[in-house]
UniProtKB/TrEMBL annotation:
Cell location: Membrane
Gene Ontology CC: one annotated term: membrane
The protein's name in its UniProt record: Lysoplasmalogenase
Source organism of the structure: Erythrobacter crassostreae
GO MF terms held by the record: hydrolase activity
InterPro entries documented for this protein: TMEM86B-like (IPR012506)
Organism ancestry: Bacteria, Pseudomonadati, Pseudomonadota, Alphaproteobacteria, Sphingomonadales
Top-level taxon of origin: Bacteria
A Pfam family this chain is assigned to: YhhN
């Protein structure tokens, strides 16, 4: 039943998953850089289309912007890391706005502490891994996004965990530029962690905005 609902009513979500899996297995294949760039961007780009089709109102538009900026960043990173990083920072700022508009009414002390740890830890660990102050500055927006997600009314074990997976994937990217050699872990896990995080964020926010119970 859930599988049929996914295919019949959420084709863009299914197409996104297919694109993400295809990119993971083809990213190092000499099929042409342009094709790989488009394939990479389509994974989260299709999540943006899914969100646009399944939501309405201001919060839905912000979610679409978050995902569309991320998709653009995915493609830009292949060509220029500075432009890609700037687009991701804009995506994080938009996500923070979405989460702050949807703050949880009550949060426990442990939840606040974890949010603070994400906000502070993201730039600190990013700097330790990369030894690059500009990456640490970018990671302030990354940590702010994860912290705000954790304190939002969206399902914590989907949207909050998805944001944490996003942070971890970025840490693996930063480790490739610094003194720590974690290979082959980054090449194996960066894309699965990143895409899984985006998928969890998109579906968690969409279902909350629609007032739905999880169907898959």
């Amino acid at each position: 039943m859930a599988k049929n609902a996914l295919i019949e009513h959420r084709p863009w979500l299914l197409a996104s998953v297919v694109a993400a899996c295809a990119y993971y297995f083809l990213w190092n294949n000499p099929i042409g850089e342009l094709y790989l760039i488009i394939l990479k961007g389509s994974a989260v780009g299709l999540l943006a289309l899914y969100a646009w089709r399944r939501t309405h109102g201001g919060d839905g538009l912000i979610l679409v912007a978050v995902l569309a900026l991320s998709a653009a960043a995915d493609m830009a990173l292949v060509l220029d890391i500075t432009i890609g990083g700037a687009l991701f920072a804009l995506s994080h700022v938009a996500a923070i706005a979405l989460y702050l508009r949807n703050r949880r009414n009550r949060t426990t002390s442990s939840q606040k502490l974890l949010a603070a740890a994400l906000f502070i830890g993201a730039p600190v660990i990013s700097y330790l891994l990369s030894q690059d102050i500009l990456i640490a500055v970018y990671a302030v927006s990354l940590g702010g996004m994860a912290a705000a997600a954790w304190l939002s009314r969206f399902p914590r074990y989907r949207v909050g965990v998805g944001a944490v997976l996003f942070v971890i994937s970025d840490w693996l990217i930063f480790s490739q530029t610094g003194p720590f050699d974690l290979s082959p872990v980054p090449n194996m896990l960066i894309w699965p962690l990143y895409y899984s995080g985006q998928l969890m964020i998109a579906t968690g926010v969409v279902q909350t905005l629609r007032g739905e119970k999880p169907a898959y």
